[in-house]
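Exercise 7. Predict the joint structure of the components listed below.
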Amino acid sequence: MNFPVLSIITFTPLVAAVVMLLMPAQRKNEVRAVALAAAIFALILSAWVFFTYNQSTAGYQFVERYNWLPALGISLYFGVDGISAPLVLLTGVVMFTGVLISWGDDDKHVMAGIQDRPREFFAFLFILAWGVFGVFVSLDLFMLFFFYEIAVFPMYLLIVIWGWIQTREYAAMKLTIYLFIGSVISLVGVLAMYWLQYKNTGVLSFDMLLMEKAGFSHAFQNIWFLPVFLGFAVLGGIWPFHNWSPDGHVAAPTAVSMFHAGVLMKLGAFAALRVGIMLLPDGAKYWQWLIMFFAAVAVVYGAYIAFVQMDFKYMVGFSSVSHMGLVMLGFSTLNRQGLLGSGLQMFSHGVMTALFFAVVGMIYDRAHTRQIPELGGMAKIMPFATIGFIIGGLVSMGMPLFSGFIAEFPIFMGVWGRQWLVAVIASISIVITAAYIMRNIRQVFFGNMPEKLEGHITDITILDKVAITTLCFFMIVIGLFPSFMVPMVQTGVENILRLLGGS
Amino acid sequence: MFTSTMFAAILPEVLILVLGMLVLIIEPFWKEEKRRNVGWLTAGGLFVAMAISLIFGQPGEPASALGGMIRFDWLGFFFKMLFMFAAAVTALLLMDNEKVGHRGEAYLLLLASLLGMNLMAVSSDLVMLYLSIETTSIPLYILSGFMLADEKSTEAGFKYLLFGVLTSTIMLYGFSLVFGFTGTTSLYQLTDMFKTGDLPLVTALGTMALILVGLGFKVSIVPFHFWAPDVYEGAPIPVAGFLSTASKAAGFAVVVRLFFVAFSGFSVSWTTVLAVLAAITMTVGNLLALPQTNVKRLLAFSSIAHAGYAMIGVVAFSQLGAASVVFYLAAYIATNLLAFGIVMAFARATGSEDLKDYSGMSRRSPWLGLMMLAAFLSLTGMPPFGGFVAKIFVFAAGIQAGYVWLVIVGILNSVIGVYYYLNVLKYVYLYRMPNQDEENHPIPLTRPYAIALIVLALGVLLIGTVFAPWFGWSNAAALNLF
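Solution:
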């Protein structure tokens, strides 16, 4: 057995959460320090996994396996492939930056960060991170589901306790109910798969690598693909089940929005890919047209709704729906380019949207409004955040030299290969995205500062700057050196294509 | 005749009896203000009895004992351990109940009822079964109405008595019909005699329906659930907790043995009947829980709903089904006792069971808030708490047996559950107290509460994470049925 790096990554947030809960509530700075230390530790380890992943042998690596309940074939079975390794890194990055953003300051009167009960906040946030890491590394369907649910419920508390006072109760309950319905519908499909495998092969096991070979019949796959895929895809924000997502984004505190849009939505997309497409490939082919339709609508519709938003955070929220639509669109192609693009887009969008929400949060904490027309002139006071937002915007528009281009271009190539008309329609979103991003940059950052904001706005803190730099770093590196991530994702895509029968 | 197996088969009951007599003898010698220490004696004695039984009283191959009256197997043994655990915790929770805690007879009645439950889990003869059910029920009637000065408690006790007597009479009539048709009262002989070929279906189902009335009352499935909310509301809180966990589980122990063994010849017919009842129970329980503003009533309706979920495992009529019921009940006992324990501790400090008074609870006592979180998320069926795994096992058994529709009903019901359980947590975590200065006063916890709550919270966590040993025992219990 090698160094059990994946289980250490996964359980670091849990241990940190327990340690924090055991600390006295008034020692706020010590609690924050523990959170930061754990986040840095997890980030370093996930970066280590990312860089030492052997791209020449591909397949699942860093595999660990411990029998958990042999009677029903449940095991703690961890491993990463070319798709999940970048997502583990992404989680590490968002966790690290999320802690920095929520640091809070007890002395000053800036509302930034978390000042009310930071101990509980970081503990719940880290339990969420525990679930997220767990889903990305689990190769056992039961444990995947276990971690998936763990990633869902802390959201409720995080939003309802620390969220935006106007909508938090409504948004948190809506989000939880949507996600819970989605996940339990998938659960029925998962259990059906489990028993059919038992019937076919006589093996009781939740091992996904065995289930790939279980030989599910076409009819079975056609029935169960949709519930399983869509059930998970609810968390991926797929149209028409996306409605919870912008509300949740807006109501959540900044770090939770970052987690939510940056990582949690990837969780849904990833589970939909891993369980839906990889275990039920024939079903995926059968329903390909429907997924493509949903995704294409999400892409264009999400972008359009983002365009008409006057609330800065709602705009970013709907842009997430649009960009996650691109991920789903890539899945629906079921070909090399599309899947490659989706894999990259999951990382690229995760970093980008985390940056967006971070900047929006910084502005809101200082201006106390998110209405775009009431904002302006931020560039003079917070130049660093402005540059960060512009870089994020360029990624969002799919500009060459940034990660967005590297991710979106293959998706459109893949879609063109399947159905050129969809590619044409979906590409409208790029224009709309460019329009709303540019408009916001002009208004919020370079417009005239309204009088009532004069003098109230302060620059962002050094911790915020570190967070923005970290996020921008990844977007630029992938844009300039695609080989940083593309070959790795390719190895993961090969694996999916093999299951799809090499199309 | 007096063999060691025979003694081992009733070892826990012998110990409980000894403990009961000890309580009876010692109690009058203690002064009034020291009488609550009987609770320590009861709880400690029960834990010792559990340890002794685990060491010397473990069953081997299933065997009949006491002339076929009881069955000595893992199914009964695991349930006995659950009941004793629940009773020990209940004794701890009773101690600081102002009106009940200092009265020794409360603990004695608790032990008497426990004795009946233990026998319910192992009875393999209809006569024995009826006797043990009555032994369980009568002390519980008294305990429910224990607070004589309190109108609600008296009403609870009387209501429970009336319902209990009526349903048990109907059940007894069913038992007599079974004997009339087959000439035997032994459950294990009924397996072969009570079959489709020998009896008209209508007769058999009718008899079964009569018996189901009595058992349905015990486990509170719809339409025999009407007593539950009122009794839970009126009874002393620890007693309500005991009723909703151990007493319900005892009912399930009988349901499992009776239906899986005695009525196995009719499984095709009764699974359908029970499936419909389970679906209705879940739905009614959850829908009625939605508008509740009193936490005890909310828990009462939620416990009705949980009887419905557990019933899915019975409907599955398979080894996994039986194992999942047992597992479900283990997780449920720990979870619901935790919930009732917190309600008790809270009511003692604030005198209120109203949901709105739970505002600001996590600010006052962060750890109590966290335990509330654990209990209610476990009831919702969220990991890493026991309720999640238990629910998945039950659903898995249901799907294996082809009851996909029932599982979907269960899932939709869980969604309703999400709403009202999380609503409680919203009060605990989000809302502030009207007077925010009061938030600096933690809710006082006496030592018995602290011990009981910590043990239960750890139990809920352990069942939800390290589930292999619990499932192993549940599975061993289920194996004895097939």
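Discussion. The radius of gyration of chain A is 21 Å.
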